[in-house]
Amino acid sequence: MGHQRLGDIPKTQKWQNVVAKVAGDGLGAAGAALQPDVLQEISSETLTAAEGGLVQAIDDPGLRYTFYLLTQIVLATREPQWRARLDALGIHLSEDSSLFDLTSEVQTAIDDHLSSRGGSSDISEIAQQAAGEAIAKLAGPKSVTLFGAGSDELQDAVRELSTKAGFSRLGQRFFGGFMARFLNFYLSKITATQSAGSRLQQVGDLTKFNEALETHCHQSARIVHDFCGEWYSKTEFQQGIGLSNTTGFMAVALKKLKDELQRQREGI
To answer: Which of 60, 170, 174 is nearest to 122 (CA)?
Structure first.
């Protein structure tokens, strides 16, 4: 499922150019030019550190449970009593609940699950943020209709993500958002040790950097687009999606992302 590459991934912003933005568009301390070899070092160190981080992320219970919860949320929308199924997952909605209510309840359900398992980690918090953003970005525009916004409209909007094609989009959006926050986590650490430091002083600069990083990562996450939809459709049909087979899926998906980071690092 999804083992073949789809050719070169089109990118409007290459990774090294994204890094240049956090380093001040090529400016070092006191306005001195940031040498290309320093910029490449920052780029390579970030990707190398992130590759190792993804290996450790495989064992993070918060990451696994967050993705499992995404599958259960979209599957619940296929049922007439979808709120009852969500209740069983610790997600409580009323008849007039909004998209904001859903994403908030998802965060609470994950926190409750992890509270008896040692609490959340940096990885699980990044995963929670990515999940909330993925649902909001894809279902948000369709959750408000001419008839208003409530549980029924929300169910219809999220139901579109319950198909094979819909879950492919949801998976790519989730992993793209996860990668953006994950890389930013390591990039901020590494640039702090460089003489250039972080030069994103203005709100506009920070916005441009985040946009470039998100674009890069969402396009890079295309590597798992088909894999997410194929796994979701086949697994649900053959055996049902549980936390155990979600764990196996996550290991393969993270390896694909790690390989993509390695490809980018070697291509710098």
So the answer is: 60
